[in-house]
From TrEMBL:
<dbReference type="InterPro" id="IPR002020">
    <property type="entry name" value="Citrate_synthase"/>
</dbReference>
<dbReference type="InterPro" id="IPR036969">
    <property type="entry name" value="Citrate_synthase_sf"/>
</dbReference>
<dbReference type="InterPro" id="IPR010953">
    <property type="entry name" value="Citrate_synthase_typ-I"/>
</dbReference>
<dbReference type="GO" id="GO:0006099">
    <property type="term" value="P:tricarboxylic acid cycle"/>
</dbReference>
<dbReference type="Pfam" id="PF00285">
    <property type="entry name" value="Citrate_synt"/>
</dbReference>
<dbReference type="GO" id="GO:0005737">
    <property type="term" value="C:cytoplasm"/>
</dbReference>
<dbReference type="InterPro" id="IPR019810">
    <property type="entry name" value="Citrate_synthase_AS"/>
</dbReference>
<feature type="active site">
    <location>
        <position position="366"/>
    </location>
</feature>
<keyword id="KW-0012">Acyltransferase</keyword>
<comment type="pathway">
    <text>Carbohydrate metabolism; tricarboxylic acid cycle; isocitrate from oxaloacetate: step 1/2.</text>
</comment>
<dbReference type="GO" id="GO:0036440">
    <property type="term" value="F:citrate synthase activity"/>
</dbReference>
<dbReference type="InterPro" id="IPR016143">
    <property type="entry name" value="Citrate_synth-like_sm_a-sub"/>
</dbReference>
<keyword id="KW-0816">Tricarboxylic acid cycle</keyword>
<keyword id="KW-0808">Transferase</keyword>
<dbReference type="InterPro" id="IPR016142">
    <property type="entry name" value="Citrate_synth-like_lrg_a-sub"/>
</dbReference>
<feature type="active site">
    <location>
        <position position="308"/>
    </location>
</feature>
<dbReference type="InterPro" id="IPR024176">
    <property type="entry name" value="Citrate_synthase_bac-typ"/>
</dbReference>
């Protein structure tokens, strides 16, 4: 990274103030305005961080115009083709893909951490059975901080590794427990003879009465879903984890904050909304009617699963997810599934429609992921929990990157105060 070029800021006839321009590997150059306040007495105003880089990062890069997503430089398509989710987790955390020996060791380590403390199991009983599983996740993952606090020197790499291994290993167990609890079924203990994703499916769909036999096609499909959701630059939940962690807080509490942020329909809740929309449309014969509604400025209806803040060409994850969707439905003999046919018709009509072409609205990852998860037997209310499980890897990698960054500071935005000017308190009888 070079900082030789400069940007000048001219403020109302004063001498120009100069700021270094930072050049990234890919993406937009950044003006380094850290000294703006000291040099000029001014702050910048940027709600939603539309033009603000909040950190340097080496983990993930998105090119929205090209429709490209890179994890540590590797295109998502290649990772989905050649690697499993745990290899991707290793890559995101350590910066390089594991070799055979490192892969084996990492998988073994994760297996050794999959069980949760028996006392934590009792924690679930405190929730109502009809609680939203994401509410349960926020509580239980936050509670991990009360159980695993023996390795809390975050300036020690080994302590950070222990936290990473623990949370990545325990997330499938906790997500499956949240599901089993909502169903009133017994919790299933992890099985070490299964790999990460097959074991998760065993804990979700197995019962003590019958040995669960994972279907390799379905396991692979879910594993790819995990990979596609593992990280996505500085989005709302990742920034939440970083901000919470910037005070030196416990990492499990930070992940719980990330889960809370992810829960919202504008973020992780979109695939649930997409499936609800397909159910609302109901039949291929009603697609035209809903496309018309989506284009009507006076109608609040939007095509859920279409459009993205960053991807303005196509979402590379959507392309992969479309294929996974086809594989899963074929494997389950659901090629003629009503919702899938409906989704394909909707996709075709929207992609040919002038309104969607002009506004660069393409299907995003959520358009297909809901259909796949439904076909796998995962209920709609669990979709965001699956997202949280996968994204935990990215959150932890980003949390660690922040802690070891020599330029790291506690996050503390400024504000543009527009409230009442200074005034005096009147005695109560004069108010
Ligand atoms: C994702 C999303 C929030 C991106 O928003 P954005 O980048 O801020 O873009 P905007 O909301 O400003 O949309 C630009 C234009 O396209 C229209 N538009 C965007 N998404 C649309 C959709 N899904 N259906 C119909 N019109 C849509 C907007 O109404 C707007 O029209 P205008 O220029 O006439 O005002 C938005 O596309 C959306 O709400 N999509 C549906 C929800 C979804 O699938 N979210 C998951 C994201 S992974």
């Amino acid at each position: 990274m070079t900082t030789e070029r400069k940007a000048s800021l001219i403020i109302e006839g004063r001498e120009p103030a100069e700021f270094p321009i930072m050049t990234p590997t890919h993406g937009n150059d950044c003006v380094d305005i850290r000294t703006l306040g000291a040099k000029t007495g001014l702050f910048t105003y940027d709600t939603g961080y539309l033009s603000t880089a909040s950190c340097k990062s080496k983990i993930t890069f998105i090119d929205g115009d090209k429709g490209e997503l890179l994890y540590r430089g590797y295109p998502i398509e290649q990772l989905a083709d050649h690697c499993n989710f745990l290899e991707v987790a290793y890559l995101l955390k350590n910066g390089e893909l594991p070799n055979q020996q490192q892969k084996g060791k990492f998988e073994m380590t994760i297996k050794q951490h999959t069980m949760v403390h028996e006392q934590l199991v009792k924690f679930f009983q405190g929730f109502r059975r009809d609680a939203h599983p994401m509410a349960v996740m926020v509580g239980v993952v936050g509670a991990l901080s009360a159980f695993y606090h023996d390795a809390m020197n975050f300036y020690d790499a080994e302590h950070r590794n222990i936290s990473f291994n623990r949370i990545v290993a325990k997330m499938p167990t906790i997500v499956a427990m949240a599901y089993k609890y909502s169903m009133g079924e017994p919790f299933m203990y992890p099985r070490n003879d299964l790999d990460y994703t097959a074991n998760f499916m065993h804990m979700m769909f197995g019962t003590p009465c019958e040995q669960y036999k994972p279907n390799p096609v379905l396991v692979r499909a879910l594993d790819i879903i995990f990979t596609l959701h593992a990280d996505h630059e500085q989005n709302a939940s990742t920034s939440t984890v970083r901000l919470a962690g910037s005070s030196g807080a416990n990492p499990f509490a930070c992940i719980s904050a990330g889960i809370a942020c992810l829960w919202g329909p504008a973020h992780g809740g979109a695939n649930e909304a997409c499936l609800n929309m397909l159910e609302q449309i109901g039949d291929v014969s009603r697609v035209d009617e809903f496309i018309k509604r989506a284009k009507d400025k006076n109608d609040s209806f939007k095509l859920m699963g279409f459009g993205h803040r960053v991807y303005k060409n196509f979402d590379p994850r959507a392309k992969l997810m479309r294929k996974v969707c086809g594989d899963v439905l074929t494997e389950l003999g659901l090629e003629n599934d009503r919702l899938f046919k409906l989704a394909l018709t909707l996709e075709k009509i929207a992609l040919e429609d002038e309104y969607f072409i002009e506004k660069k609205l393409y299907p995003n990852v959520d358009f297909y992921s809901g259909i796949v998860q439904k076909a796998l037997g995962i209920p709609t209310s669990m979709f965001t929990c699956i997202f949280a499980l996968a994204r935990t890897v990215g959150w932890m990698a980003q949390w660690e990157e922040m802690l070891i960054d020599p330029e790291y500071k506690i996050g503390r935005p400024r504000q543009l105060y527009i409230g009442a000017a200074r005034r005096n308190v009147a005695p109560i009888d004069q108010r």
